[in-house]
Here is the input.
Amino acid sequence: MVNGMNLRRLALALVAAPRVSPTRVRKNPVFSVNTGVSAAPSAAPKRVSTTPDTESQANAGTPDFRQLFSGYPANPALSLITTPPFVPVFRTATITDGVQVWGLNHTYFATRETAQWIANQYGTGQIVEVPFGGNGGPYSASATEYHIKLPDGRLVNAGILAGYYERNPEALFPGLADKLIRAQLAG
Here is the structure.
């Protein structure tokens, strides 16, 4: 006895269950298009040619899709016209107290060409030469800093701004250094 039923009733219940004919009702998987039941006999599947069609293989949208995520122009001919990415150049400098000599952070000492590029890009185009650490005192540096004049009159060390391009090279991170500099200058 199973849960109050005897085995004969259980066997009879299984035999009496309605049977579904597999030819009459066909279940399709979830997310498929239900075509319904057809009374006609099923035909053999059509053969599809395995030779590639040259027109269907051409994908004109590929360069545009790549351009969305790479930051490069969609037209390869335009990439030949553009200028090479900016790569800053820095000078080495030292400071002394008359007895000892220490090396200074090269980021403060952009070359004149780098400073001019930064001044043209973010400032008024004017460069001001400033002695490192100011005038006077017991310390003297071997190089001067180049500062750029911003449109609002502030002076900013060109090497500090050029350092963004050194840490975020245009070849690897297009536009990132420019975005970071503009955010710093706006704040």
